[in-house]
Amino acid sequence: MNNDAGFFATIWLLISKYILPLLPGAMGAAVSLSFLGDGINRWQKLTSFAIGFFFAIYVAPMLLELMSLKGEHVTPGVEFLVGLFALATCRELFKELNNADIIGSLKRKFLG
């Protein structure tokens, strides 16, 4: 019986250390799926979730460091928001890049 308690304590320790900190970003990415509309298939939804989730994992710590934000409740909040807005931000960034006349702007700036 004692071994079972130790096993479950170890499992809970692993979950609380490695899985629970990922939940805010995952939830933000999951909530963002509701804004995508009905016109996408499962693979597109899965890819969208993965993009938001990975942005929350890798971009949120960078933003927290860049803005010097600290706090027990600030970190999960920023992770949630990054997961939520990552896909929309990427979509708008790609739209702007596609619509921008980068070569023309560079020519006008440097060649007159």
From TrEMBL:
Keywords, ordered alphabetically: Membrane, Transmembrane, Transmembrane helix
Transmembrane domains' residue ranges: 6-34, 46-64
Record protein name field: Holin
Organism field: Undibacterium terreum
